[in-house]
């Protein structure tokens, strides 16, 4: 059993997508980040960076004590290795997957995240910041579109954790001011993953957990006003 500390963000969706695909039993423990639940001491003991998602594997392969893990990319890698699914075992295939997983973690996620912030949440529009992150998101979409021109999935012909990491960050493309019609290969890939039964189930779980997916004024102060003192 996997305990999943979760909220309905792109990084949270990555893990539910994997667990649904792999058929691994899991228990969702909601962490309402708009209410500051990510600063609870019991959560910080698992995820010291006070970010979701995090997991606790109650039955690790070595038979020892439960293993806590934070950072969505590390969680995907861990679960793939534990289950023997969605990560090739050969050195070349694994290298293909891992470089695109890191591309998402170091590029697409942070840039699209800043896009979300300055386009949707900043208290006043800052034209330079909006243009900077909308344009960089557009560039990254172009990189992905070119990559998918001659292959079904990001790492080749097989669906992997790299695809699961990237897909949730493309879901809000309209809010990122991106038009998928400009990226036909990406659009094809996106539609294929959206139609997978496990993807449908994962996003249905999100709708059950967060019935009002809006960010209130109070939530903004929690989410965007953090400093080292926030950790207590």
List its salient traits.
Glutaredoxin, Glutathione S-transferase Yfyf (Class Pi), Chain A, domain 2
How would you describe this structure to a colleague?
It is a single chain. This protein is of the alpha+beta class and 232 residues long. It folds into two domains: 102 residues, 3-Layer(aba) Sandwich (Glutaredoxin), CATH 3.40.30; 106 residues, Glutathione S-transferase Yfyf (Class Pi), Chain A, domain 2. The chain is 53% helix and 8% strand. It has a four-stranded mixed beta sheet with strand order 2-1-3-4, with helices on one face.
Largest sheet: 4 strands, mixed
Number of domains: 2
Give the radius of gyration. 18 Å
Number of DSSP strands?
A: 4
Structural class: alpha+beta
- What's the shape? globular
Q: Quickly count the helices.
A: 9
CATH class of the largest domain: Mainly Alpha
What name does CATH use for the topology of the largest domain?
Answer: Glutathione S-transferase Yfyf (Class Pi), Chain A, domain 2
Helix content: 40-55%
Distance between the termini: 31 Å
Domain GST N-terminal: 1-87
Domain GST C-terminal: 90-213
Protein name: Glutathione S-transferase
EC number: 2.5.1.18
């Amino acid at each position: 059993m996997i305990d999943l500390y979760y909220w309905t963000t792109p990084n949270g969706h990555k893990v539910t997508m994997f667990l649904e695909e792999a058929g691994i039993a899991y228990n969702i423990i909601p962490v309402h980040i708009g209410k500051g639940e990510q600063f609870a001491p019991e959560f910080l003991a698992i995820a010291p960076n006070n970010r979701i998602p995090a997991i606790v594997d109650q039955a690790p392969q070595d038979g020892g004590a439960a293993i806590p893990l934070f950072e969505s990319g590390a969680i995907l890698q861990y679960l793939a290795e534990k289950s023997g699914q969605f990560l090739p075992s050969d050195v070349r295939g694994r290298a293909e997957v891992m470089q695109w997983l890191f591309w998402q973690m170091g590029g697409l996620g942070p840039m699209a995240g800043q896009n979300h912030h300055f386009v949707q949440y900043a208290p006043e529009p800052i034209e330079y910041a909006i243009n900077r992150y909308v344009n960089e998101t557009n560039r990254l979409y172009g990189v992905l579109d070119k990559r998918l021109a001659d292959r079904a999935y990001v790492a080749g012909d097989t669906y992997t954790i790299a695809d699961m990491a990237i897909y949730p960050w493309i879901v809000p493309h309209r809010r990122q001011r991106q038009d998928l019609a400009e990226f036909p290969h990406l659009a094809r890939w996106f539609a294929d993953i959206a139609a997978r039964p496990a993807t449908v189930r994962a996003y249905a779980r999100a709708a059950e957990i967060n019935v009002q997916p809006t960010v209130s004024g109070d939530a903004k102060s929690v989410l965007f006003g953090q400093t080292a003192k926030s950790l207590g």
